[in-house]
Design brief:
This protein is an alpha+beta fold. Among the domains are: 87-257 and 383-421, no CATH class; 428-458, no CATH class. It has eleven helices and 13 strands. It has helices at residues 3-15, 33-45, 48-55, 85-99, 110-122, 125-139, 261-280, 334-349, 368-407, 429-439, 448-456; strands at residues 101-106, 141-147, 157-162, 166-171, 174-185, 190-198, 201-208, 230-231, 238-242, 284-288, 311-313, 326-328, 417-421. Strand 5 and strand 6 (190-198) form a beta hairpin. Helix 4 packs antiparallel against helix 6 (125-139) and helix 7 packs antiparallel against helix 8 (334-349). The longest helix is centred in the last third of the chain and has 40 residues, at 368-407. The protein is extended, with a radius of gyration of 32 Å. The N and C termini lie far apart (73 Å). The relative contact order is 0.11.
Length: 458
């Protein structure tokens, strides 16, 4: 122990300072990885009934105080409305990203480029990638894999599995195996079929439901009887697709919904309260008993809890009140409701997408500069996903071309591919004309050639 350590020990002994013994805390996770995928799927699907059923059955260790877990008092009903915002955000982002995908180029290989064009057309590649982006936004991550079935197509069949149906094996922090999970039912038993994709090839395992030991023969099902394992392949016929890494589930991705669930719940609550307040603040008609409307049989009409057209009041002997029908307007605080709505909406969109991208105008007085500033949030999210796709999609193309070579009885070739994405929110022709015209009045800031190029290069 050095001089500094001895002095520190002497001070501790003199002041009688006791070192901390630490504390032990137990935190219980509410959901498994598959459970969070299922929950996120419900938010994306946007069915209010499904959300209500889910949250009224799950114990969140917080007293189930969320809006979607709330249950009305006996005899008092209230309407729960889902705005559909999570699904709208994911669909719009996916459209913006995939619409910018121009092409995947195979460098210095004309034949490979032609083969890839046919493979992409056969697999409806852009639609497949769009659905993959949506699935990763919802279910954390996923993976592409190549199947080969000559009875369906002479080209490799590209399939994407979302996070709930994929597992990964890592070694020293590197991905070595992607496991694809398939569920089958032969009418008697349920089975889990796993496909292990690695650089060594493909192997299969079949499990009966509730049994962790694989069956000896994986070909007992009609779906698996024609499958053959692949050995000494030399490359992996699968590619992982992960945008953000999860801090909660090691080795897995993170859904864009994970940190926004409470915000979406609050937003639905604000809008539901708004509609409930509109109902409660309808104009009320107070009608004396002898003037109440009756049906054809002479029975008094019972007012509905929804329309609240009239309210029955007792008779009075007061001269100025007798036999009067009184109408009273509700007191709806529009400004307060609007501010609550905008605040809840802002929290839902923060870090994901700008309101103007969704066509939402929360501030009517925003000028063009302010609208462009808002669009930066969308650009950040878009660019983050595109940076990942610029690595993943070329890998998918190369993987397909190598698999095609193998299927043709050739050695897998060496290919290099790049993905080309266009710019986002490029200015309109009118905006370009205005910008170019401002650059040339009086003095030639921009040459004629440059002006023509800026105007007509598209």
């Amino acid at each position: 122990m050095g001089l500094g350590g001895r002095i520190k020990k002497m001070v501790q002994n003199w002041l009688e300072i006791q070192p901390s013994i630490g504390e032990s805390l137990v935190i219980q996770e509410i959901n498994t990885f598959e459970g969070t995928c299922f929950r996120n799927q419900l938010w994306y699907r946007g069915d209010a009934s499904e959300l209500h059923q889910y949250y009224t059955q799950v114990d969140d260790q917080m007293g189930n105080a969320r809006f979607w877990a709330a249950i009305g008092t006996d005899g008092i009903d209230f309407r729960k409305i889902h705005t559909g915002l999570p699904g709208i955000i994911i669909d719009v982002l996916a459209d913006i990203i995939i619409d910018a995908l121009n092409d995947i180029e195979i460098k210095n290989n004309v034949e490979a480029q032609e083969n890839w064009v046919e493979i992409a057309k056969d697999n409806d590649f852009k639609d497949l990638v769009k659905q993959a982006v949506i699935d990763v936004f919802i279910e954390h991550d996923g993976a592409f894999k190549v199947n080969y079935n000559t009875s369906i197509s002479k080209y490799p069949i590209l399939v994407f599995y979302s996070g709930a149906n994929v597992e990964y094996e890592y070694q020293n922090g590197r991905l070595i195996t992607i496991i694809f999970k398939n569920y089958y039912n032969d009418g008697k038993k349920k089975y889990l079929f796993k496909e292990f994709y690695s650089k060594d090839g493909i192997r299969y395992e079949l499990y009966e439901e509730g049994n962790n030991k694989p069956l000896k023969d994986y070909k007992i099902l009609k779906e698996t009887k024609n499958l053959e394992e692949v050995h000494d392949n030399g490359f992996m016929m699968a590619t992982q697709f992960m945008i953000n890494k999860s801090k909660k589930f090691k080795g897995r991705g993170q859904s864009i919904l994970d940190k926004k669930i409470d915000d979406f719940d609050s937003f639905d609550e604000v809008w539901s309260q708004w509609i409930e307040a509109l109902r409660d603040n309808k104009t009320q008609t107070y009608i004396p008993e002898e003037l109440l409307p009756c049906d054809d049989s002479g029975n008094l009409l019972k007012p509905s809890t929804w329309d609240k057209r009239f309210v029955q009041i007792g008779n009075t002997n007061a001269e100025d009140k007798a036999g009067q029908i009184i109408r009273e307007s509700g007191d709806f605080d529009y400004e307060k409701m609007l501010q609550g709505y905008i605040t809840a909406l802002d929290l839902c969109l923060q870090g994901l997408i700008s309101p103007s991208t969704l066509g939402i105008d929360t501030k009517k007085l925003d000028n063009a500069d302010a609208q462009r500033e808002k669009e930066k949030v969308t650009q950040y999210t878009r660019n983050k996903v595109i940076r990942v796709l610029e690595k993943v999609l070329p890998s998918v193309a190369v993987m397909c071309l190598k698999a095609y070579d193998k299927a043709q009885g050739r050695e897998a070739g060496q290919y290099e591919a790049t993905a080309d994405f266009g710019e986002y929110s490029s200015p309109s022709f009118e905006a370009v004309v205005e910008t170019v015209s401002k650059a040339r009045p009086g003095q030639a800031v921009m040459s004629i050639e440059r002006s023509v190029e800026e105007l007509y290069r598209r």
